[in-house]
Amino acid sequence: MTEFWLISAPGEKTCQQTWDKLMVATTRTNNLSTNNKFNIPDLKVGTLDVLVGLSDELAKLDTFVESVVKKVAQYMADVLEDSRDKVQENLLANGVDLVTYVTRFQWDMAKYPIKQSLKNISEIISKQVTQIDNDLKARASAYNNLKGNLQNLERKNAGSLMTRSLADIVKKEDFVLDSEYLITMLVVVPKTSYADWQKTYETLAEMVVPRSTKLLFEDGDSGLFSVTLFRKAVDDFKHKARENKFTVRDFQYNEEEMKADKEEMTRLSTDKKKQFGPLVRWLKVNFSEAFIAWIHIKALRVFVESVLRYGLPVNFQAMLLQPNKKNMKKLREVLYDLYKHLDSSAAIIDASMDIPGLNLSQQEYYPYVYYKIDCNLLDFKV
Questions:
Q1: What is the distance, to the nearest Å, from the Cα of residue 313 to the centroid of all Cα atoms in its chain?
Q2: Beta-carbon contacts of residue 185 (< 8 Å; ≥ 6 apart)
Q3: Which end of the chain, N or C, is less packed with Cβ atoms under 10 Å?
Q4: DSSP run (H or E) holding 8
Q5: Which helix (H) or strand (E) holds 318?
Q6: Packed helices 118-156 and 255-310: angle between N→C axes, nearest 10 degrees
Q7: Tens-binned pLDDT, residue by residue, of the chain (382 aa)
Q8: Crossing angle, helix 48-79 and helix 255-310, to 10 degrees?
């Protein structure tokens, strides 16, 4: 399970007692969850008005930062072409896997100094993550263009003889070049019609050079034949060929153009390889930054919500529960019994109920402070 429940409850005589009570209720006898203390430092409380406003702002910021974390993770999967193990290896926070980071969370004093007001800390996070989001858009756009152009060229060189580029199939000696009167044409003939082609090609128009056809290339269904004729018979030849289900490909041998195409493909391929390493490194670093910022927002939300609900002086214990998947319903019931005295009105309100004046911001409401953290950030295409 990569889902965590970050909750808080007011300190009894001491916060340790609150912790011990939770442990007895959820782990000693029934193994409902694996629990860790979630360390939140002594943050500056500020005024009640500011806290109420901040509560809403942090809810929006939480949603935004989570979306950026997921975008960076998903783009990492796209760039690494969905190799699941490789992706998970690169999705780290501070050099450790996400579950380890969350369960051993320590506030980063250097990045988010606790001497600053809560509002300032939330603004630092907002600026930082907005910058990551903007950079991701720019980098992804540049890399996707490159990848798209390369795929288009590769697509041209693949597929059936009816549609694919013929530049890498034909050679200069296959053509009559620089003749005022003669021209070499390329015709796609179904394999089942080879005999018909050999019998009829000389008669498809006047002025076809006898015995000038040659099989240049075959794929699963068809063959590519060359044939030489007089220029003035071209239209007539095309028309008759079509009637006989032979497909004339419009192709002119142009060494300059073919060389330019090859060089373009090499250039794009080299550019893609050059950008790949730095891009993956950037994604790794900024995934870590965004994920760390996201968990700090969760910490801020727990702090703000706990002060608003449980009052001053600040006295609450934040706890991180990793529910046992089979017992999630039971865990909810145990937590409700444990904390229902905190709020008599919270007979588990369903988030889908629309209650005027109560902004649940898509979050279920319980008698204790509760936020979900889901470390499974990828939708893998199986």
A1: 43
A2: 226, 227, 228, 229, 234, 237, 248, 249
A3: C
A4: strand 3-10
A5: strand 316-323
A6: 160
A7: 589 999 999 998 899 999 999 999 998 778 899 999 999 999 999 898 999 999 999 999 999 999 999 999 999 999 998 576 788 889 999 999 999 999 999 999 999 999 999 999 999 999 999 999 999 999 999 999 999 998 888 888 888 898 888 888 899 999 999 899 999 999 999 999 999 999 999 999 999 999 999 999 999 899 999 999 999 999 999 999 999 999 999 998 888 888 888 898 899 989 999 999 999 999 999 999 999 999 999 999 999 999 999 998 999 999 999 999 898 999 999 999 999 998 766 555 444 444 444 444 445 789 999 999 999 888 654 3
A8: 150
ω into 313 cis (within 30 of 0): yes
Using a 10 angstrom Cβ sphere, with 0-12 exposed, 13-18 middle and 19 or more buried, the burial of residue 369 is buried
Q: Which residue matches tokens 């153009």?
A: 257
pLDDT in tens, 44-72: 998 989 999 999 999 999 999 999 999 99
Q: Both tokens of residue 331?
A: 């865990």
Tokens describing residue 142: 């540049």
CA distance 306 to 157: 62
The answer to whether 107 and 40 are in contact (CB under 8 A) is yes
The CA radius of gyration of the chain, in Å to the nearest whole number, is 34
Q: What Å distances lie between residue 310 and 8, 301, 361, CA to CA?
A: 10, 14, 20
Distance CA 84, CA 105 (A): 26
Residues 6+ apart with CB under 8 A from 265: 150, 153, 154
Kindly state the helix (H) or strand (E) to which residue 226 belongs, with its residue range: strand 222-230
DSSP 324: -
d(CA 333, CA 276): 49
Candidates 363, 317, 367; CA nearest to 22 is: 317
Q: What are phi and psi of 208, to 5 degrees?
A: -90, 135
